[in-house]
Amino acid sequence: MTKKMPKDFLWGGATAANQYEGGWNEGGRGPSIADILTGGSVNKSRRLTPPAPLEDEFYPNHEATDFYHHWKEDIRLFAEMGFKIYRFSISWSRIFPKGDEELPNEEGLKFYDNVINELLKYNIEPLVTISHYENPLHLSLEYGGWKNRKLIDFYMNFAKVLFTRYKGKVKYWLTFNEINMLTVPFGGIFCAGILDENENNEENRYQAMHHQLVASALAVKMAHAIDPNNKLGCMLAYHNGYPYTCHPEDILFAQQYGQLHNSIAGDVHVRGKYPGFAKRFFEENNITLKIDDNDNKILQEGTVDFVSISYYSSICVSATSDGEKTSSNGSENIKNPYLKASDWGWQIDATGLRYVLNQIYDRYQLPIMIVENGIGAIDEVSSDGKIHDDYRIDYMRKHIEQMKEAVYDGVELIAYTSWGCTDVVSASTGEVRKRYGLIYVNKHDDGSGDLSRMPKDSFYWYKKVIESNGEEL
């Protein structure tokens, strides 16, 4: 046995419509929650504005980095890198502008027809996220977001249209992006579309998560019925929290942190029921979920075929100490003194990826996809007109090395898609200058730039990685 990736391993990249697509008011598309979030260099922290965009504000998601008009060029570049798979999301409000209509917007479907057909032309497997931080704005204003059970039916109508339209073309689906972000306030807006600050409380977020878990299970069952070849996965933002000290209370706290932020959602998706510790957590935090009589049966019958995760960094957690704080993906916790950090303070922990992959596989024994991994950095065009992003290559190299170690450990890993394979708008800050891409997009936080594309050094490095199936790092 050697440290080699499987022969059929799926290398690729990932983006999301709300951060990449643009064309926010074209092709019959309606507004989404992302379209009323400010951002850019003026507003480092994103904030919600009234439903109608304000003239004196910058809304980076409106144009984003404009996949809507550059899809053909970008897919050609993905093919040049050798992608085997490309993860993207379908904008719900492009298909159902308000979210609750009976019939879809045909012009929106034709756009994704073109995208999917172009991917298949290059033998790139589409991996489609059905809902990725872009609920139609109307569903928030009229129904209050996912805390309202009515959204299950609207989502199922959306999912049925996709499963039917793309039968035989799309095999891999993710039901919700980072569903477990609903354990933190960040997720109330992004995951659930709960826009009223007073309503973004713990009980409403867990109620929204329950509705999404039911919707996911129903979608899994529907997708398998429409096409038995369909493979449905859950998607977790994996929160890797180490105990800050070896104090037993810190060890227990770290375990409970992982249970809360990773395993409640993961267990329901994979095992079809809430884990035992969830009952105690809900009781001790005065959380009372409204669960319909048939929900438990639905969850049991709609378990996923694989698990997917985002992994960027790790943090430390403690019940006994107040260490120096640092940010991570959607949360803030204690800085690990043994790790370096990105320009945005996210601590770089490649070894943690091996730890996480083993942890997930030991718990679930299902195939795993890493569908987001990358580093947000400030990329500068050098005097020779190129972008020498050695820091990104170093980040990816070390994480892929640990992926190979995990495969050698016995983990069934089937795909890796680097996040923001083309520069996108940051979900957390609304900035373009927080660049993740292997492809540079000439777009800036003041709205300037001609949106031209240029491969970075990491583009050519990753091409060799894919060509060698991970041997040439």
3D structure, described in words:
By secondary structure, the protein is of the alpha/beta class. It has a single domain, classed as Glycosidases (TIM Barrel), CATH 3.20.20.80. Helices cover 38% and strands 14% of the residues. The chain contains 14 helices and 14 strands. It has an 8-stranded parallel β-barrel, surrounded by 6 helices. The protein has a two-stranded parallel sheet with strand order 6-8. The chain has a two-stranded antiparallel sheet with strand order 9-10. β9 (325-327) and β10 (332-334) form a beta hairpin. The longest helix has 25 residues, at 202-226. It starts with 9 loop residues before the first strand and ends in a 6-residue tail after the last helix. This is Glycoside hydrolase family 1 protein. It holds the Pfam family Glyco_hydro_1. One of its GO terms (molecular function) is hydrolase activity. Belongs to the glycosyl hydrolase 1 family. Keywords: Glycosidase, Hydrolase.
N-to-C terminal Cα separation, in Å? 20 Å
How many discrete domains? 1
Tally of extended strands? 14
Which H/E pattern describes the elements? EHHEHHEHHEHHEEHHHEEEEHEHEEEH
Percentage of residues in helical conformation = 25-40%
In the CATH scheme, what's the topology name? TIM Barrel
CATH homologous superfamily designation? Glycosidases
Number of helices: 14
CATH class: Alpha Beta
Strand percent estimate: 5-15%
Described by the principal axes of the CA atoms, the overall outline is globular
Average pLDDT score: 95
Strand order of the biggest β-sheet: 1-2-3-4-5-7-11-12
Largest beta-sheet details: 8 strands, parallel, barrel
Content-based structural category: alpha/beta
Low-confidence stretches: none
- In CATH terms, what is the architecture? Alpha-Beta Barrel
Radius of gyration: 21 Å
